[in-house]
Amino acid sequence: MKRFEYRWVLLALLSLTFFLELGTRQIYNVVLPLIRADFLPLGVSDVQLGMVGTVFTMMFGFSLVASGFLADLISRKWVLTLGTLLFSLGIAGCGLATGLVALVVCYGVVNGFGQCCVAPACLSLISQHHVGTRATAMSVFNAGNYVGVIVCCFVSGWIGGLGAGAWRWAFWIFGGIGVAWALVLMLRVKDEPSSSDEAKPTLRDAVRSVVGTPSALLMALAFAMLVYGMMGFNLWAPIYMLKVFPSLTPAQIGFHAVFWLYVGCFAGVFTGARIADRLARGRRAVRIDGAIVSLVFSAITVFALAHTHSLAAFLALMFAHGFARGLWDANFYPGLYDFIAPRYRSSATGLIGSAAFVIGSFAPMALGWMSEHVSLATGIASLAGFFAFGAAVLALLRFLTFERDVLKELCA
Question: End-to-end distance of the chain based on CA atoms, in angstroms?
């Protein structure tokens, strides 16, 4: 197969893998109302159900750095393939769970470790095979995220509504598809070395590139606030919708909880990228400005979501909240890379992502506690404070450290 042809075949393979990874990650969130109904009589609390999401996020965060280094050190193909197989087995195992421990092990540990292996290997392969077409390739790859979440959540909600215990089939079906897809990756993805002969940076070098740059540290803290709000909202939004709109079916909740959010993400990411690319040459801090706007808008919309009882208004706010997230996706990593030399960007991405997801892992359990002791609406509203704090951190960066830390070649 010619190189030109293979790079697009590879992009399709990686995009579909991302489709499955992000899509299956959301199944637990969508069918959580049904799991909750089955497990509450067994003595499982909301805090414990939230802990499942906390364990997943913490496992994902702690393992992210290691998966990136293993992909470079051993093989991107095999880290990607084995990671896909592992998270698919974890998802399928959730369908067999009869108690909390099984959910924690299958969804939290096995699924979490497998999912962390996907993005670093995929992004490295895309950057190697798409040079002049990198922007297009990254857009297609990220689209797999949004489409995967919408499709998997809608189908899972529909399956869950078929009857008692039907939610288990959502895990079995998508887990089985993932196992089969791992075999496709094994057969079709080439096992090849990195195209760069430059010595790879050590972990110590990567840590220094972040810790020694105040703007990068502030970006990491803002990202942690975004992840905290995102993980808390994603997990508990379906339960919240069930409480506020009890007439909705599981399929309708599965659809509405993700469709409007991720359609908003589509609109936000392409709008944000186009605006930032046009203004970046004359206004170096435009990506930081875009990230600040994203967090402020996220705070406003999530607070409003916790105080509306109109379904039409709720769905409009879901779209607006998704638009804010899309703005973040369009601006955060390009903004971060204004402070990190190209040699350290992959490693720094893993380090910052790891820290952010570990901090954000406490959100699902914290909202579960608030659901039991205060109210879930208060828990959802509290996320606005984290988004607002992240915006304040970036404002501090924008006016105090940006000019000092921005890479000199960007100022030329």
Answer: 41
Block means of pLDDT (10 residues each) for the chain, length 412 residues?
Answer: 72 92 89 89 88 88 79 81 96 94 95 89 76 61 80 88 91 97 94 58 73 89 95 89 88 83 86 75 80 96 95 95 90 80 70 86 90 93 97 94 75 46
Tokens of 268: 């936000």
Q: How far apart are CA 349 and CA 65, in angstroms?
A: 9
Count of beta carbons in the 10 Å neighbourhood of residue 336: 24
Taking a C-beta distance cutoff of 8 angstroms, is the pair 229, 361 a contact? no
Distance CA 203, CA 200 (A): 9
| E strand segments, 125-221 | none
Tokens of 127: 């950057």
Separation between Cα atoms, residue 21 and residue 289, nearest integer Å? 30
Nearest CA to 88 out of 209, 180, 198 is that of 180
Q: Are 264 and 323 in contact (CB under 8 A)?
A: yes
